[in-house]
Design goal:
Length: about 350
């Protein structure tokens, strides 16, 4: 998803201890897709309750959030609002890929090819409106705040990080930097291994990326970083410019003073149906709002109703998580440490 700057940007490897007593704006859709992708049975079947309802998102949200709060890290989840028209093509392409992966997964399951089936299952993950509503309901019961963005959740989270409402954005997508997030935290998980789509695994670490450092290292302004992203490909022009990778895009962004000049380069053949000037403006001035939020108290009865009574999660595990959750939130309410 979004622009890929991984080959040009080095993050600072950090641990949970480095985020002690910090509040992070977490891209909710980003993490929900993660949970739906990785919390599955060996053949790729997602976690389900006795009625056949998918519960991978609830499991991930409850246990990941509890782990973060246990480590004195406080997430504020930011949900997408209205999808911008600029994203229609990308959304359609993603939908087609998911549908194709779903069909291939079902065929591979029948053939007994478990490893390949799991890979296709991960690619078929889909967040539904019901899942989003269930996630909001669970967060409310857990006493945790969430923010509804007017448009892109990443843009809203970036604004919150830029105006110091939170310490950083927690996301896997580099677009957070294009939207102006002063700090970004990648791989916000205690798991040190992550599965690849091909069934293999890789070692990961939590990373902190600072926008100011990225711009200094690349020799770009934020607007020029947006141009570079557009050349490589963003959610609003996913194919980028044919034949232009990150290194070439960096050179082009450095040597031009306007988007008009960038587009006039011989190698730049803009084929996206979206207006490049509208894309540039959306990254620089995205729709966002003032996000007021506060941490509340745990409604243990409601959490148990959602997780145990409705969806059949282990009562002992949920009660253990609730105890840790309550202790962490009570510590915040007593005023320990700074807020962001």
């Amino acid at each position: 998803m979004g622009v890929d700057l991984g080959d040009l940007v080095d993050g600072e490897e950090i641990t949970y201890a480095d985020l002690n007593d910090r509040v992070l704006a977490v891209d909710a859709m980003n993490v929900l897709y993660q949970f739906l992708s990785i919390i599955r049975q060996r053949d790729g079947t997602p976690l389900k309750d006795s009625d056949g309802n998918i519960t991978s998102h609830l499991s991930g949200l409850f246990y990941r959030t509890t782990k973060l709060l246990d480590s004195n890290i406080r997430p504020v989840y930011v949900f997408d609002g209205e999808m911008p028209d600029l994203k229609a093509t990308e959304a359609a392409q993603r939908r087609e890929k998911r549908e194709k992966a779903q069909k291939e997964w079902e065929e591979l399951k029948q053939e007994g090819d478990v490893d390949e089936a799991f890979s296709k299952a991960m690619q078929s993950s889909r967040v539904t409106g019901d899942m989003i509503d269930e996630s909001r309901e669970l967060l409310d019961a857990m006493g945790l705040p969430y923010v509804d963005a007017p448009s892109e959740g990443e843009a809203q989270a970036a604004r919150m990080a830029a105006n110091d409402s939170v310490y950083a954005v927690g996301s896997q997508d580099w677009d957070s930097l294009l939207f102006g997030a002063e700090r970004m935290v990648k791989n916000l998980t205690s798991r040190k291994k992550r599965s690849n789509p091909d069934g293999s695994s890789r070692t990961i670490s939590t990373e902190l990326i600072r926008l100011e450092q990225v711009l200094d290292d690349l020799g770009l302004s934020r607007r020029e970083l947006v141009w570079m992203g557009m050349l490589v490909g963003t959610d609003f022009n996913p194919d980028g410019i044919y034949g232009i990778g990150p290194k070439t895009a960096l050179k082009i962004a450095r040597r031009n003073q306007s988007l008009e000049q960038v587009l006039s380069e011989d190698k730049v053949d803009w084929e996206s149906e979206n207006d490049p000037y509208q894309i540039e403006d959306f990254f620089i001035n995205p729709p966002t709002n003032n996000a007021d939020f506060s941490f509340g108290s745990v409604d243990a009865d409601l959490v148990e109703e959602i997780m145990v009574e409705t969806h059949g999660f282990s009562e002992n595990r949920i009660q253990s998580g609730l105890e840790r959750l309550s202790n962490a939130l009570e510590a915040r309410q007593k005023g320990i440490g700074s807020f962001t």
